[in-house]
Amino acid sequence: MKRAMAALLLSGTLFAQQGVVVKRLGAPDVKIEPAIWVGDLLYVCGVMGTPDEPGTPPVFHQNTEQQTLGAFRNIEKVLKEQGLGLGDIVQMQVFLAPDPKTGVMDLDGMNRAYQSRFGSKEQPNKPVRATVQVSRLVVPTGLIEVMVVAARSKK
């Protein structure tokens, strides 16, 4: 833990020395930053779809493909507020929980949603991506959480 904290402090110091601006987008009372600019890179925290039943915890009845499309829509909203779009995403991390019906992640469902938004005629850009199965997400009925890094191009 001490090494991790030291590395974090050192990286912040290196950013400052290099003149890289770090801008946090969350309100002062948020527990997790929704997104952070580091220079021209926007780091977006883990995003899920929109639940069928809001609450604590929220409840999802949707399948993996539907939840993935919802997560992409929510990510797109964050990006749009910052003047970016899905085509600006350069890195994506996908966390899939097992579908309760099969006991394994629905990679096919996630990939169908992914292919509808990335690498298409309308939006040809694809990020580098990692997809992993996790035993479960913080929201018990959630099947997917997505983290992304987007880059602002200098034109």
Task: Describe this entry's structure for a reader.
The chain has 155 residues and is α+β, with helices and mostly antiparallel strands. It is 29% helix and 23% strand. It is built from three helices and six strands. It has helices at 2-17, 64-81, 107-117, and strands at residues 22-24, 35-38, 41-47, 89-96, 128-133, 144-151. Strands 1-2-3-6-4-5 form a six-stranded mixed sheet, covered by helices on one side. The longest helix has 18 residues, at 64-81. The protein is globular, with a radius of gyration of 17 Å. The model has no long low-confidence stretch (mean pLDDT 88).
Structural key phrases:
six-stranded mixed sheet, alpha+beta, globular, 3 helices
